[in-house]
What does this fold into?
Amino acid sequence: MRRVRHALRLVQTYGRPLRTRSEVAAFLTWMEDRGIAPQTRLGVLSTFRRVNPEQGAFTGHRIRIPSRSVFDDILTRAEVSKILEHLKINEDWYYPIFFLWLSTGLRNSEIIGLTWDCIDWEQSECKITKSLKRREDSNVLRQWGETKNKKHRIVPLTTGVLKMLQEHQVLMQAMNLYQPYGLLFLTKRTRSNLYDALLERVWKRTLKSCGIKYRKLYSQRHTFLSHTLASGNSPADVAAIAGHRLDELLKTYAKPTGALKLVEWS
It folds into this structure.
């Protein structure tokens, strides 16, 4: 339903009929000229076909999807430091979630749905048992669900992350927003659950202010997993905290580092 509404809004903005292949082709060109991504254009065209499968005007169009590597989304250590420094000064309300995100590589729905009872202070770890997923009929409203692979996992937390979370907890208590089983992170204005579009706005303006090339919101997960793997950690351990299959992790994130350590026999 959400995709149908999005496609309808685009057609209404375009304001011209889509009755023939040439008219649909002109609409696709219009979307491209507006900077709409190829994946989005393809999704809109697929929605048209699904809603009106007997309309031949929506067939026979080719949209080239450029090949893209996950490594295009990975931030350098210097970029991460610059981003976090900027957030701490200029976006202090959202700084904790991005700090935790870049330090754990959680999926969007997992960090949005993270509750205080998931933090194990004594063991310095976070228990990932659920997610707060986007509803099909809304960009803002969400519903509780399982993790992507329907499995629970444990993600270790560094001393710096624990210190940040303790400070965040104190702030939430002072504002009467803390609940033992409540959400860690809330919207600044309505004090409700966070959602992708809001976080995307904060992320986008932060990258722009820092002079850093735009990356998708999900790049925080890519960045964490890539750097953690490249640091010499066991791929099996990294896959476990990521909620990935080992072969999937290696296929997506493993690449030569140029720092190969050879076995030397005595």
Notes: The longest helix spans residues 159-174. The mean pLDDT is 90.
